[in-house]
Structure formats: C-alpha cells, structure tokens
Amino acid sequence: MRSVRLAAAMRSARSHGGMRRAAPARRPIAPRAALLFSAALLLAGAARAHEIGAGRVEVFLARDGGFRVDLQIDPDLTLQRLELAAGEALTPGLADAPLRTALLARRDALRATATLTSGDVPLATSFDYVPVPPAANGRREVVVRLEGRLPAGKPDLQLSWSLPASRYALVVHREGDTGDLETDWVEPGEPGPPLRRASAPPSRLAVARQYLALGFTHILPRGLDHVLFVLGIFFFATRLKPVLAQVTAFTLAHSITLGLSIYGIFSLPSSIVEPLIALSIVYVAVENVLHPQLTPWRVAVVFCFGLLHGLGFAGALSSLGLPRSEFLTALVTFNLGVEGGQLAVIALAFLAVGSWARREVWYRSRVVVPASLAIAAVGLYWTVQRTF
Amino acid sequence: MRLARLLSTLALAMMSSAVGLPAFAHDFWIEPSTYRPEPLQRVTLRHRVGTHFLGDPVPRDEDLLVRFVSLSRNGELRVPGVHGMDPAGIAQAPESGTLVVAYESRGSVAELTPDKMARYAEDEGVASQLPAGWQGKPLLRDRFSRSVKSLLVVHGGGSAGFDRIAGLPFELVPLADPAALAAGGALPVRLLWQGKPMPGIQVAALSRLDPSQPLVARTDADGRVTFTLPRTGEWLIKAVKILPVTAGDGADFASVWTSLTFVAGEP
Q1: C-beta atoms of A90 and B211 within 8 A
Q2: I want to staple A3 with a disulfide (CB 3.0 to 4.6 A). Which of A118, A186, A248, B193 is the partner?
Q3: What ipTM was predicted for this assembly?
Q4: Between the CA of residue B212 and those of A81, A84, A154, A230, B221, what are the distances in Å?
Q5: Residue A312 to chain B, least CA–CA distance (Å)
Q6: Residue B25: band (very low, low, confident or very high) from pLDDT cuts 50, 70, 90
Q7: Spatial distance between the Cα atoms of A380 and A276, rounded to a whole number of angstroms
C-alpha cells in the first residue's frame, strides 16, 4: 500500500503507509478548490509514483457499521476506459442521458473497479449513479455511490480502486468525529489504508467524566485569567461569608451565560468578551485595595463580571465541541468542572496564605494589597493586549 | 466458505486488473481545449496522465514544473496557470500558424516491483536500456520526468511552425505537416535527445479513436521514425528513454517520457 494521510486543514500532518518522507514546504495556493491537492503535495514527497490526479473518493462511516463510498468519476473517461477494457470501440462525447445509460449498462464492470473489504472479506454493496452539477472548470462529474454495512466484529473498511491512472484522494468522514477530517492519497489499484469504523457513542458517565475534567482544567491550569479573578475575590475579605457571597454570584452568573450562549440564545464576539474579562480582573483587584467592604454593589459587580466569564467559558466549550447525544450532560458537567476549579483555587490560596496569615495585622498591607496590585497589573496588561 | 472467498477475491482481482490497466509506465500528455483555435483565441491546457490515451486530469504543480511555455511566430511565452488547478494553464493562439505548447517537469521517483518493471520494459521497449542486474532487485526506483508538447494550428492560418523545436531535453519533432495529412498518409517524426537525433528508441503512436492498437516503431540512426496514420483526428506519439543515475541519487535509474499530441488532417 502506498498512501499518504493528512489532516484536511493541514494542522496535524500524519504520515501513513508507504510515505517515505515529508517533502519540503511548498508554496501556498490561493484557490480553495486546490487545498487538498496542495496538502497532498506537502506530504507526498519525492517518493510519489505518479502525478497526483484530480480523482476523489469520499467515505462516510456510521456508528452502526453502515458505510457509503462515493467514487467521483469523469463519466466520459470512465466509459471509454470500460469500453477499452471490454475490447469495444470508444464512444466519444455523449450527452448526459445516453452517457448515463451507457455507464449503467456497464455497472458490473464499473462496480468491479472498486474492491471493498473488511479484513479479507469482500463486502457487498448497493450501487447508485448520482449526477453532479458540472464543475467550475466545465468538467462533467458523476458520483458512483456504493453503500453497505460492515460485518459485526469487523472494525475496518478497506478500498482498492483501479479506475484512476493517478494517485487519488480518499476523504474519510466518521459519524461523531469532531476532529480533523482524514484524507489519504492512494495509488490506483493498491489497497488504501484500513479505515476504522466510527466508534460507538460514549456513555453518559464517560461524557460526564470527560467534561468535568475539561471544565476543571479550563480553570486549573489553563485559565489563568479566571484564576486571577477568583484570587481577586479571595483577597477581598478574610472572612468566609463575603467570599462565599461573591463566589455564589459569580457561579450563578456564568452558568446563565454559558447556557444561553451554548444554546445560541445570546453571545458576544470574543473580541469584546476577552478584553472585558481582563478588565474585570483589574476592577476587583483595584477595589480590594481601595474599598474592601462587602456591599450589595460589590456582589452585583461580581455577578455582572460572572456573566462575561460565562461567555468566555462558552467560547472554550464550543471550541472543544459537545457530543450531540449527551449535550446537556456535557454542558452541566463542564460547568461543574469549572466550579471545582474555582473552589480549588480558593482552597489552595487559603492553604497557602489565608489559613495562617489572614488574622495577622500585616495581612492586608503585606499580602492583600501587593497581591491585588500585581493581579491588577496583569489584568491591565491583558486588557491592552486583547484590545489592540 | 474459504473456497468461495478465494474465488470471489480472484474474480474481483481479475476484473480490477482488466479495467484498471497497468499501474505503472503511465503516459503524460498535454490536451488543449481545441487543437484548431481561432486567431488570438485563448486555449486551456490540461495535463493528462494515463494509458491508452485515456488520462486523468493532473492539476498544475509548480514544484514539479521546470518549463511550461508556448512558442509561435511571436516568440516564446510562459504558460500562466494556478498551482493545484486543472486546467494546468492557458495560452493564446497567434494570428496564424502553429502554436507549440511545451512542458518539462522535474523528476519524481516511482517504486516498481520486478514484475511491474518487466512489464514496463516490455511495453515501452526499454529493456536493453535498463541497468544490468535490475531483475535481481526486490524494488526498483525510477526517477521519471516529463518532456511533452502539443501542436495547435490556428484555424485558416496555415500551419507554419509545426516543426518548431521547443528545446525540450527529449523531444518529438514532426518532419511533415500533420495538419496536411490525409488518412493513410505518412508522418515522419524525429526524436531528439538534448537537441540531437536519438537512434534506437521505441516510439508509439496512438489514435484517440482506437488507442488499443498503437503503431510502434524504433528510431533509425538519424533519430527518425515514420508512421502511416490510418486515420486523421487526434493522435498521441510517445517515447521513453532510460538514463543512468549517479550513486546517491536515490534511484536505480532515471527515465524521460516524451509525448506529442496533435490533430492529423483537418487543416
């Protein structure tokens, strides 16, 4: 097998099969239609056997073992290749309808150009002929659609397609996959890579665990801005009640906007949210220095800032992706993970400083004020950085 | 069950090989949107790779491209195009005469098993050119490059310049005007290597309408070969030359593939 695998967005290039080495970086290209071609060149290297053609196969793998293979073909060229193989005279330039008739009359031969196996077992498929609107360059295209089901216990699908004369793109879509699209470049007539079937949907418990961890790690250690905001709340008072009042307001607020944003009801662009989050850090830290008394105003301000932080959490959660099957579970557990992270920050700060120093007379002058000023300085820096 | 599986696998393999054609020794040629453009007409140029004059479109690859030009009475012009796109380029026909489009590529390496190599050698008639002892190697690496051209004759403007030499490393040059040929007419062609006549090379001519019956001949001492074309229409003439490589080149041998596409008759 000689094939090359790459992420469609070229973010995580992975070699596969017979690729011997990566080629040096190649010049970028403007047209989107040529992105895959350029990506193939990026990875194909000097060991490619043939020029890379315009052929393409799209494979769709469902969780229940179903699969669909779309062979994109040039109908004129395909008909002539089939005629040549059958020892018939070549038919040039038919109109769409007679071309379809001629190809369907050779459906067995056309079907036989693609060998689909799982393990060593050949797979039976349905056959469908799907016309496609003409390409921008005027080339006629048709999809030959093969659909079937992987046998129970067989994890992989493997395609060998002998119709093209040049290396073709094999693009793989898996149900439920939210990561990079997988693309392989396969030599005609050679087996492509074994394509792993789509995995079963994760259980509710697995989703809960995963998103709980994601929510926690979004605060500790990844969310330094949220950590500084929570520390700002922590340094506000030495007693538990004011801290709890603020944390509760903050939690309530960010839960509201996280949910609203994830459900698409309300959101703001990150270009607005991120600088405001940084500014919120400055505010709570400066207020710790200037006005360290718990008032309803302070709780209201923290609540408002919590609304902003919730929009920030929503942005992070959206980029992680939410499983459709367990959307609410993921949302709730991510939020719980965030709470856990915040409480962990407060607990660590309490153990590090508060537990032994908060009753000392110098606690405010030597700990609260310098720490709050440092937090404010960092927040100010982020505000400027995120604004300009 | 095992027997059924074996039989079905064998059947699929046989059908695939019947349709798929050899997965090696692929020809490469230029296919213009028309071989008979009007004066000053813009013509798109496709690169094609395949066998039997039935080729997959190949997008333009700037990193393989050494030279892609059009030559006419107006001189030599670079063929513009976009990397990764098919058609590979666009050229403008002159006011009259023949527009020669020429493309030269860098080498790419293909890996061939001995059985594929043997079929390649037989199909292209290059067995005598291969390095000694190639049969004993489990895998052969061929650094192949392209050196191809196409003749476009401006409609109603004569075909002067049909024998223009493009200066490709390996080049087929018609010695008679293909546009003036009738069915059954003789077309002498000279094969040049680095600008000099190349003797002893197999040359094949394929008609678009019957590519399964190629005309095959070997160049004489003057690099000439003459084909009697049974029909007019679109033709592909092609040849392969094997070259030695230096140690450390990463290949066992190099090959240069030349082709010439044109329409015979229909002046």
Answers
A1: yes
A2: A186
A3: 0.79
A4: 11, 7, 41, 78, 28
A5: 39
A6: low
A7: 10
Q: Quickly list H helices, chain A.
A: 35-44, 75-85, 96-104, 107-112, 204-219, 224-234, 240-262, 270-290, 296-320, 327-349, 355-357, 369-387
Strand bridging mode B253-264 / B140-153? parallel
**Beta strand pairing status for A195-196 and A182-186?**
unpaired
Whether residues A112 and B52 touch (CB distance < 8 A) is answered with no
Share of chain B above pLDDT 70, in %: 90
Q: Which of B9, B54, B58 sits opposite A122 (nearest CB)?
A: B9
List the 130-149 stretch of A: residues with Cβ below 8 A of B.
Answer: 137, 139
- Looking at residue B197, the DSSP 8-state letter turns out to be E
Interchain contact, B84 vs A38, CB within 8 Å: yes
Beta B42-51 vs B65-72: how paired, if at all? unpaired
Q: Is A27 on the interface with B (CB under 8 A)?
A: yes
Could you say which residues of chain A have pLDDT below 70?
1-51, 135-138, 178-180, 199-200, 324-325
* pLDDT higher than 80, residue B9: no
Which of B207, B213, B204 lies closest to B258 in space, CA to CA? B204
How far from B232 is each of B36, B236, B258, CA to CA, in Å?
Answer: 14, 12, 21
Task: Go through B13-34 and write b for each residue having 16 or more CB atoms within 10 A of its CB, e for each that does not.
Answer: bebbebbbbbbbbbbbbbbbee
Assign B21 to helix, strand or coil.
Answer: coil
B249 secondary structure, DSSP code:
S
Closest-CA distance of chain A to residue B164, Å: 28
Tokens of B196: 């000099």
Q: How far apart are CA B108 and CA A6, in angstroms?
A: 20
* Token code pair at residue A61: 């793998």
Contacts A19 to B, Cβ<8 Å: none
Residue A137: its pLDDT value, please?
Answer: 62
Per-residue pLDDT of B86-132, as tens digits, reads 899 999 999 999 999 999 999 888 888 888 888 888 889 998 888 88
**Which two structure tokens, joined as six digits, stand for B167?**
């200066």
Q: Which helix (H) or strand (E) holds B7?
A: helix B2-20
Model pTM score: 0.64
Q: What angle do CA B212, B218, B221 make, to 5 degrees?
A: 160
Q: A165 to chain B: which residues are within 8 Å by CB?
A: 21, 26, 49-51, 54-56
CA distance A214 to A71: 39
A196 CB near a chain B CB, below 8 Å? no
Would the CB atoms of B87 and A137 count as touching at under 8 Å? yes
Residue B21: its chain A contacts at CB < 8 A? 81, 84-85, 162, 165
Q: Between A and B, how many residue pairs show a Cβ–Cβ distance under 8 A?
A: 151
Which pLDDT score, from 0 to 100, does residue B234 have?
96
- Residues A253 and A313: their CA atoms lie apart, in Å, by 12
8 A C-beta contact, residue A171 and residue A71: no
Please provide the DSSP assignment of A80-112 as one string.
HHHHHHTTPPP-----HHHHHHHHHTTHHHHHH
Question: In Å, how far is B136's CA from the nearest CA of chain A?
Answer: 21
